[in-house]
Design goal:
Helix content is about 15%, strand content about 20%. By secondary structure, the protein is α+β, with helices and mostly antiparallel strands. It has two domains: about 35 residues; about 35 residues. Bound molecules: zinc ion (ZN) (2 copies).
């Protein structure tokens, strides 16, 4: 009568895959359920969000030339955080 045996470990499967990532800003390791190209930890994300609200749209990004840079920086949000370097153009 062992045909109805159910594996007790079947219920042990984690809900989602967790990725062990390293923050691209501060280098701290952290876990995320997403595999990110430019991983950023929680604390740096908070900084990013606060910086994100202060964009100077009169200045061009020195890297990609887009209008709008992070206040007191010379790069746009994407370049500063390494999120959007599509055509690695360098000067
Ligand atoms: Zn970080
Ligand atoms: Zn840029």
């Amino acid at each position: 009568m062992e045909l109805g045996f159910t594996n007790p470990f079947r219920r042990w499967r984690p809900k989602g895959r967790m990725y062990s990532l390293k923050c691209s800003q501060c280098g701290n390791g952290f876990l995320s359920s997403y595999s990110l190209e430019a991983p950023i930890c929680g604390s740096c994300m908070q900084v990013a969000k606060s910086l994100d609200s202060t964009i100077d749209y009169d200045i061009q990004c020195t890297t990609c030339g887009n209008k709008g840079v992070i206040y007191s920086k010379k790069q746009c949000h994407a370049c500063y955080f390494g999120l959007g370097n599509k055509d690695g153009e360098e000067k």
